[in-house]
Design brief:
The complex is a heterodimer of chains A (393) and B (247). Chain A has 16 helices and no strands. Chain A starts with a helix and ends in a 6-residue tail after the last helix. Chain A is globular. In chain A, helix 5 crosses helix 7 and helix 7 runs antiparallel to helix 8. The longest helix of chain A is centred in the C-terminal third of the chain and has 31 residues. With 393 residues, chain A is mainly alpha-helical. Chain B is of the alpha+beta class and 247 residues long. Helix content of chain B is 35%, strand content 14%. The interface between A and B is large, with 59 and 57 residues.
């Protein structure tokens, strides 16, 4: 009974969000950006760039973090989460492209950077990286589809090309995760000193790596709920530890940079910037402290809450860089119009729905079996998660 | 020879002839109501702004190394040798990064158009290339907006500052701002009092992004070597085991 109601609720919510998104889409493409957004000459970038693109690409960072962990660093225990991470990354990028189509004034010209070059432009580099990386993610995900279709020859060919594809993917991700930060380097006087720093590319990169891990934990938590499987605590525990360490590095660097630039004194100035800054830091620092504690790591719900908090901290940071930090110098206050929010929600909802479908119909949460002779062949159970349990952790 | 404009705000009487000439030359509507707007927009490429009894002019500053041209992913904005920064609408995808990056807040957008373009003063590039003055300079009845060679205009501005030190605030706006601009401004009062942003870096802004961007090839090369090497190291043990098992 409860289960039925819950399912009905989520479906109804999905339909409502999609309907609102459809109406907003009509407004956007019929009436133009002016009709569908609160953007202006003073504030030309809103949440479609700040949330859909900046956060979207960051939240898809699990793909390269885990591909590198498993395939390059050969840490086998993380293998079970590589596929869901790559699927998320692939969907994430596709949805970022969809979001861009909404935001661009001339969406049908999205291919222009491929032939109209300006190598001095960070955006040009981001455009190329995203194009190439989406292709790489497609190739990385392809084996899952080939496996489902049982096309073994094609699968073998793909396997031979794995290493170069993985390396290309990691490099492309490194480049554009950091370049999303570089986008804001051009505005040293416009972006608030709490966020403008020459280290923006480095900070964006490190926080993207951490977000990749956080998203992977988030997903395995949800998929274990949705598909009625045990959550592999050993693995999650190890990931939260790594997350805590990376966050510590990130926050240390962040504060060293702030103090070296003398930006901490701006915290004395009144204004909402310091509160948004505080929120961003707290949302990252609290989960870090939680995950340094053995007890918290053992508690699934605490792990989940910590990870969600971290992800919110990440989103707050990206929104601060792209919206909060630019408001003061622009002289206007920007708050998204309902239609901007509707499009964003619809894109997120579509992401969840496609992920669920893919996870249902494709072997996303299964191990690659051919080369993994070590996997115990439990007939009815899904072997991977059990096999991946790290002894003694 | 790089051409430029010198706007001497002490000579401006706020007659808005520059606005009218600009709008007429660009086939934009111009009437009493539009004249009242003190902001530039997609339909008003230059604007006279009132600050008490003083006037200032807003128009594209035509930076020597413009941020807008450096950030545009498709090179839709271009700094011409003659001075003006021009826009190629047929390349533009509408990402609006040029608008975000401009310290002077110059590029504007056709927000209510279904297929909008960026609009800004193009420095009358069509005329300047033939060494004709810009429409605004030609229309100015008091000589507040002068057209000429940038170096000569700087010399002229310096002469004015030296001759009438009491009437001018002792600086020429546009020599160093954002690495230098092709629009120079003189004022009787500090520039922020007549609406010009003053906390602008003295270096060309594209340097900030280039500092990061120039490392891209290094990341690619070092990354490939590093990742390949780590892969080789971490998989070495298995390889050895496999070989030993076989032999």
């Amino acid at each position: 009974m409860m289960e039925g109601i819950r399912r009905y609720f989520w479906r109804a919510l999905f339909v409502v969000i999609m309907a609102a998104g459809a109406w907003a889409t009509y407004l956007r493409f019929w009436g133009g950006l002016g009709a569908a957004t609160n953007l202006s000459d003073q504030f030309p970038w809103g949440i479609w760039i700040g949330f859909d693109v900046l956060c979207g690409v960051g939240l898809a960072a699990g793909g390269f973090t885990l591909a590198a962990t498993v395939h390059i660093f050969n840490i086998k225990s993380f293998r079970p989460v590589v596929r869901p991470a790559i699927l998320t990354a692939f969907l994430g990028y596709l949805l970022v492209v969809v979001a861009l189509l909404f935001d661009l004034g001339h969406p049908y010209r999205i291919w222009h950077p491929i032939i109209m070059w300006n190598p001095r432009s960070v955006m040009f580099e981001v455009g190329w990286c995203v194009t190439l990386y989406t292709t790489v993610l497609f190739l990385e995900f392809l084996p899952v589809v080939l496996e489902r279709l049982k096309w073994h020859t094609a699968l073998k060919v793909m396997k031979a090309a794995t290493l170069p594809i993985i390396i290309a993917g990691v490099i492309l991700s490194t480049l554009h995760q950091s370049s999303l930060g570089s986008l804001f380097l051009i505005m040293p006087n416009r972006l608030h000193p709490l966020w403008w720093t020459p280290l923006l590319p480095v900070l964006f990169f490190i926080s993207a790596v951490a977000t990749g891990l956080a998203m992977t934990i988030f997903e395995s938590w949800h998929s274990s709920k949705a598909f009625g499987r045990q959550l592999e605590y050993g693995l999650v525990c190890r990931m939260t530890r790594v997350l805590a360490v990376i966050t510590a590095i990130y926050l240390t660097l962040r504060f060293l940079d702030l103090s070296h630039r003398g930006a901490l004194s701006t915290l004395n100035q009144p204004g909402f910037e310091r509160w948004m800054f505080g929120l961003e830091i707290v949302l990252m620092a609290v989960p870090m402290l939680m995950f340094f504690r053995e007890k918290t790591r053992q508690h699934p719900l605490a792990v989940y809450l910590g990870v969600v908090m971290w992800l919110l901290g990440f989103v707050t940071n990206r929104m601060n860089v792209s919206v909060t930090g630019l408001e003061r110098s622009s002289g206007v206050h920007y708050f998204p119009k309902w239609s901007e929010i509707a499009v964003t929600l619809a894109i997120i909802a579509a992401g969840f729905a496609i992920f669920r479908l893919a996870a249902h119909y494709l072997p996303v949460f299964e191990e690659e079996h051919e080369e993994e002779a070590t996997t115990p062949a439990g007939s009815g159970r899904i072997p991977t998660l059990e096999a991946a349990r790290v002894p003694g952790d | 020879m790089a051409r430029a404009l010198l706007f001497d705000s002490t000579l401006c009487i706020g007659c808005r002839e520059c606005e009218r000439a600009c709008s007429e030359g660009k086939h934009l509507p111009y009437d009493e109501k539009i004249a009242q707007e003190e902001q530039t927009s997609a339909r008003k490429l230059t604007a006279i702004r009132t600050h008490g009894e003083r006037f200032s002019r807003k128009l594209c500053m035509h930076c020597l190394d413009p941020a807008c041209a450096s950030v545009c992913p498709v090179a839709a904005l271009e700094k011409t040798a003659a001075g003006p920064v021009i826009y190629h609408p047929e390349r533009c995808m509408g990402c609006r990064y040029c608008m975000v990056s401009c310290v002077f807040g110059v590029p504007t957008y056709e927000w209510n158009s279904r297929l909008p373009y960026v609009r800004k003063c193009d420095g009358c590039a069509d005329r300047v290339a033939g060494n004709e003055p810009t429409r605004c300079a030609e229309a100015c009845p008091t000589g507040a907006t002068l057209f000429g060679d940038r170096d000569e205009l700087i010399a002229e501005a310096k002469k004015r500052l030296a001759e009438k030190p009491d009437e001018y605030y002792p600086r020429i706006y546009g020599i160093e701002e954002a690495g230098g601009t092709s629009v120079l401004v003189l004022s009787a009062v500090p520039f922020d009092q007549i609406g010009y942003p003053v906390n602008i870096e003295k270096v060309a802004l594209p340097q900030y992004t280039w500092a990061a961007l120039k490392h891209v090839p290094d990341v690619v090369v070092m990354g490939t070597v590093l990742l390949g090497g780590i892969h080789w190291l971490t998989h070495r043990k298995e390889e050895v085991a496999r070989k030993e098992g076989r032999s």
